[in-house]
Amino acid sequence: MTRIASRPALQPSRLRSATSTAAASTSSSTSSVSQKHLLAFGSRGKEVLEMQRLLKKEGLYKGALDGKFDRDVHQAVTAYQKKNGLEVDGVVGQQTWGATLGLSLPPGRSMLAGEPRSNALTNRHVDSFEGPARTTPSSPRGRATPLRGSTAVPESLRAYGNGRIPRGALTPIGVGSHRLYAPAAQAFQRMAADAKAQGVRIGVTDSYRSYDAQVSLANRKGLYSQGGWAATPGTSKHGWGVALDLDLNRQAQAWMRANGARYGFAETVPREPWHWEFRGQ
User: Fold this and answer.
1) What are the E-state strand segments in 50-208?
2) Rounded to two decimals, what is the model's pTM?
3) What is the C-alpha separation between 226 and 223, in angstroms, rounded?
4) I want to staple 266 with a disulfide (CB 3.0 to 4.6 A). Which of 81, 122, 132, 216 is the partner?
5) pLDDT mean across residues, the chain
6) CA angle in degrees (0–180, nearest 5) for 236-276-213
7) Number of C-alpha atoms within 13 angstroms, CB side, residue 4?
8) How far, in Å, are 86, 89, 270 from residue 131 at the CA level?
9) 146 phi, psi to nearest 5 deg
10) Residue 107, pLDDT above cutoff 80
11) pLDDT given at position 126
12) Positive or negative CA dihedral for 75, 209, 265, 275?
């Protein structure tokens, strides 16, 4: 019979030393994460270059090492997140930074340094956009006033991804070729019909917006937080089929502010009185 030599028990002093070493390593890695910034479409700089190199090493990025967070980097980040079982949003937050250092961290940015590094991301979590608005009797000159709440991502569409929803999964709203998430489309049809009965026309200039269309708009109009008119590609509520850009004259704008909430629509972007999001009734 072959004797199996027993392994000597780890002495308390060695156990404490091993534990301290592991803790120090984790602390050092966590510290490294805390020195990073949030990166998203439009970001530029050394940290973007660092991420490009990582993604290229992973075989996920084929573009130039230029420190610019463009469409190719966004797609590579998304692929990296899918590959590593992370939250897939195309944004490099503490969870994605942590994965590069072998850490398991929750989504968010509570451990990251300062403000987003030169990007347009004003709200990292794409599941909601805080800051909806509507007119109330006390609103001066008919301006929108804040209303608590958020615009949720439709569960039935979540699996497709923002801006990647197939045409057949959306419902026509009865105006041109525009389509929305089914409950939003139905609510709009009722709202438009009721407004028409009162002599008010509600026109539509945009509805569901594909990811490619979001990228094109960002390139043409600039990112919102930098004074432009576009959300970070992959975060727009248009990409979930729950937002509309309306063509409204003064009468129609006043009607929407007085009645939109009855149909589940809220005015959510201060600089864009034409932008309305569906929040359910």
Assistant:
1) 133-134, 145-146, 171-172, 179-180, 203-206
2) 0.53
3) 5
4) 132
5) 78
6) 35
7) 2
8) 27, 21, 9
9) -60, 145
10) no
11) 29
12) positive
